């Protein structure tokens, strides 16, 4: 198939590698001219996953409209806060039959929208042409061809089956789901809990605290997710528990790393000064706003928001969380 991958960061690069290895013809759009040049001339992305040698069947393009103009499938992998602008630039060139697979994980702060909503607002695609891809998939490991599983969520069973068959390989196993809302929210909200998980590690709170945080984190993710229309089972699946375990415990998580450095006492500006994105930072604010709007209790998310707003120190947040009023576990 003709595939466009929009977004030349780590995940876009890894997905391009995966798609090319699966036998598809891939055009990767990257914003940085040096990435386009490096991919086309040296078969590597100099800024993101520079250690990976890119397979044949993959070229880079600096004009997003040009990149998507012949695509049957577009993987959209732009960080959520920048997504709207890129969607506008590619709108006119997107072929009418193309399916858009969003692989970004976050909630837009300005509008409190999920990616399916941002895409619908900007492109006016029929719902059948939108699919979300989520799950425990560190880019570096997927690019290395290590085994991974993820979920495709969409409203058209035939599109889901087509994508599942075209993009599953012996090292990348795709499942189908009809729960777009749940899969999108699970992938976005776990990034906030991963920041909290990293903080617990940075503060040296031990394994018990991390396990408690992860479990209670999943509980509050599901509480908001179900309130907004997600299916409860989705939060126990690959996009929910699977990705939460990965990012709260895996050394490759950028969100976890942000939390760990804050927990160790590094200043926020220094922690956020790198080139890579930690989607949990803006999404903490969006998730907390959505929770307040829908009167959903999300104590860990509220604590992460307060720490990022510098209203609370990580240590104070631990005390606040541990001394809340006592509850039923399943409340
Ligand atoms: N890296 C990973 O292992 C995974 C990442 N994701 C998701 O994929 C999405 C993209 O993340 P990564 O590829 O990891 O990014 P990255 O952190 O590797 O790279 C940053 C990306 O942001 C882009 N960017 C920066 N400023 C921009 C702007 N003003 N306008 C447009 N683009 C801009 C850069 O061009 C680059 O592509 C995120 O939503 C992330 O949560 C999902 C699964 C795995
Ligand atoms: O979503 C991810 C893996 O599934 C990547 O997590 P980070 O953005 O925290 O690195």
From TrEMBL:
<dbReference type="GO" id="GO:0051287">
    <property type="term" value="F:NAD binding"/>
</dbReference>
<feature type="binding site">
    <location>
        <begin position="254"/>
        <end position="255"/>
    </location>
    <ligand>
        <name>substrate</name>
    </ligand>
</feature>
<dbReference type="GO" id="GO:0141153">
    <property type="term" value="F:glycerol-3-phosphate dehydrogenase (NADP+) activity"/>
</dbReference>
<feature type="binding site">
    <location>
        <position position="254"/>
    </location>
    <ligand>
        <name>NAD(+)</name>
    </ligand>
</feature>
<feature type="binding site">
    <location>
        <position position="135"/>
    </location>
    <ligand>
        <name>sn-glycerol 3-phosphate</name>
    </ligand>
</feature>
<feature type="binding site">
    <location>
        <begin position="7"/>
        <end position="12"/>
    </location>
    <ligand>
        <name>NAD(+)</name>
    </ligand>
</feature>
<feature type="binding site">
    <location>
        <position position="11"/>
    </location>
    <ligand>
        <name>NADPH</name>
    </ligand>
</feature>
<dbReference type="InterPro" id="IPR008927">
    <property type="entry name" value="6-PGluconate_DH-like_C_sf"/>
</dbReference>
<keyword id="KW-1208">Phospholipid metabolism</keyword>
<feature type="binding site">
    <location>
        <position position="10"/>
    </location>
    <ligand>
        <name>NADPH</name>
    </ligand>
</feature>
<keyword id="KW-0521">NADP</keyword>
<feature type="binding site">
    <location>
        <position position="190"/>
    </location>
    <ligand>
        <name>sn-glycerol 3-phosphate</name>
    </ligand>
</feature>
<feature type="binding site">
    <location>
        <position position="254"/>
    </location>
    <ligand>
        <name>sn-glycerol 3-phosphate</name>
    </ligand>
</feature>
<dbReference type="InterPro" id="IPR006109">
    <property type="entry name" value="G3P_DH_NAD-dep_C"/>
</dbReference>
<dbReference type="GO" id="GO:0005975">
    <property type="term" value="P:carbohydrate metabolic process"/>
</dbReference>
<dbReference type="InterPro" id="IPR036291">
    <property type="entry name" value="NAD(P)-bd_dom_sf"/>
</dbReference>
<feature type="binding site">
    <location>
        <position position="137"/>
    </location>
    <ligand>
        <name>sn-glycerol 3-phosphate</name>
    </ligand>
</feature>
<dbReference type="GO" id="GO:0141152">
    <property type="term" value="F:glycerol-3-phosphate dehydrogenase (NAD+) activity"/>
</dbReference>
<dbReference type="Pfam" id="PF07479">
    <property type="entry name" value="NAD_Gly3P_dh_C"/>
</dbReference>
<comment type="similarity">
    <text>Belongs to the NAD-dependent glycerol-3-phosphate dehydrogenase family.</text>
</comment>
<feature type="binding site">
    <location>
        <position position="105"/>
    </location>
    <ligand>
        <name>sn-glycerol 3-phosphate</name>
    </ligand>
</feature>
<feature type="binding site">
    <location>
        <position position="105"/>
    </location>
    <ligand>
        <name>substrate</name>
    </ligand>
</feature>
<dbReference type="InterPro" id="IPR011128">
    <property type="entry name" value="G3P_DH_NAD-dep_N"/>
</dbReference>
<feature type="domain" description="Glycerol-3-phosphate dehydrogenase NAD-dependent C-terminal">
    <location>
        <begin position="179"/>
        <end position="318"/>
    </location>
</feature>
<dbReference type="GO" id="GO:0005829">
    <property type="term" value="C:cytosol"/>
</dbReference>
<comment type="function">
    <text>Catalyzes the reduction of the glycolytic intermediate dihydroxyacetone phosphate (DHAP) to sn-glycerol 3-phosphate (G3P), the key precursor for phospholipid synthesis.</text>
</comment>
<feature type="binding site">
    <location>
        <position position="31"/>
    </location>
    <ligand>
        <name>NADPH</name>
    </ligand>
</feature>
<dbReference type="GO" id="GO:0006650">
    <property type="term" value="P:glycerophospholipid metabolic process"/>
</dbReference>
<feature type="binding site">
    <location>
        <position position="243"/>
    </location>
    <ligand>
        <name>sn-glycerol 3-phosphate</name>
    </ligand>
</feature>
<feature type="binding site">
    <location>
        <position position="253"/>
    </location>
    <ligand>
        <name>sn-glycerol 3-phosphate</name>
    </ligand>
</feature>
<dbReference type="Pfam" id="PF01210">
    <property type="entry name" value="NAD_Gly3P_dh_N"/>
</dbReference>
<feature type="active site" description="Proton acceptor">
    <location>
        <position position="190"/>
    </location>
</feature>
<feature type="binding site">
    <location>
        <position position="255"/>
    </location>
    <ligand>
        <name>sn-glycerol 3-phosphate</name>
    </ligand>
</feature>
<dbReference type="GO" id="GO:0046167">
    <property type="term" value="P:glycerol-3-phosphate biosynthetic process"/>
</dbReference>
<dbReference type="GO" id="GO:0046168">
    <property type="term" value="P:glycerol-3-phosphate catabolic process"/>
</dbReference>
<keyword id="KW-0547">Nucleotide-binding</keyword>
<feature type="binding site">
    <location>
        <position position="139"/>
    </location>
    <ligand>
        <name>NAD(+)</name>
    </ligand>
</feature>
<dbReference type="InterPro" id="IPR006168">
    <property type="entry name" value="G3P_DH_NAD-dep"/>
</dbReference>
<comment type="pathway">
    <text>Membrane lipid metabolism; glycerophospholipid metabolism.</text>
</comment>
<keyword id="KW-0520">NAD</keyword>
<feature type="binding site">
    <location>
        <position position="277"/>
    </location>
    <ligand>
        <name>NADPH</name>
    </ligand>
</feature>
<keyword id="KW-0444">Lipid biosynthesis</keyword>
């Amino acid at each position: 198939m003709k595939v466009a991958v929009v977004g030349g960061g780590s995940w876009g690069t890894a997905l391009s590698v995966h798609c090319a290895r699966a036998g598809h013809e891939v055009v990767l759009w990257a914003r940085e001219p040096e990435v386009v040049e490096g991919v086309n001339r040296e078969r590597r992305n100099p800024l993101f996953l520079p250690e990976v040698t890119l397979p044949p069947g993959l070229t880079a393009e600096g004009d997003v409209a040009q990149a998507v103009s012949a695509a049957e499938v577009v993987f959209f992998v732009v960080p959520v806060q920048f997504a709207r602008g890129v969607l506008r630039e590619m709108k006119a060139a997107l072929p009418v039959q193309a399916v858009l697979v969003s692989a970004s994980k976050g909630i837009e702060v300005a509008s409190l929208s999920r990616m399916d909503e941002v895409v619908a607002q900007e492109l006016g695609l029929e719902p059948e042409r939108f699919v979300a891809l989520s799950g425990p998939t560190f880019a570096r490991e997927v690019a290395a061809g290590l085994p991974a599983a993820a979920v495709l969520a969409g409203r058209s069973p035939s599109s889901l089956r087509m994508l599942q068959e075209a993009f599953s390989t012996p090292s990348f196993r795709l499942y189908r789901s009809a729960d777009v809302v749940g899969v999108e929210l699970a992938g976005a909200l776990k990034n906030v809990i991963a920041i909290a998980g990293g903080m617990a590690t940075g503060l040296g709170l031990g394994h018990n605290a991390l396990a408690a945080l992860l479990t209670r984190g999943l509980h509050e993710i599901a509480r908001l997710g179900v309130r907004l229309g997600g299916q409860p089972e989705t939060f126990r699946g690959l996009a929910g528990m699977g990705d939460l375990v990965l990012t709260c415990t895996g050394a490759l998580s950028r969100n976890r790393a942000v939390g760990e450095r804050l927990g160790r006492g590094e200043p926020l500006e220094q922690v956020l000064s790198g080139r890579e994105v930690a989607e949990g930072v803006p999404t903490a604010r969006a998730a907390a706003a959505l929770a307040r709007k829908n009167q959903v209790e999300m104590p860990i998310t509220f604590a992460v928001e307060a720490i990022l707003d510098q209203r609370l120190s990580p240590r104070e947040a631990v005390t606040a969380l541990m001394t809340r009023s006592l509850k039923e576990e399943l409340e």
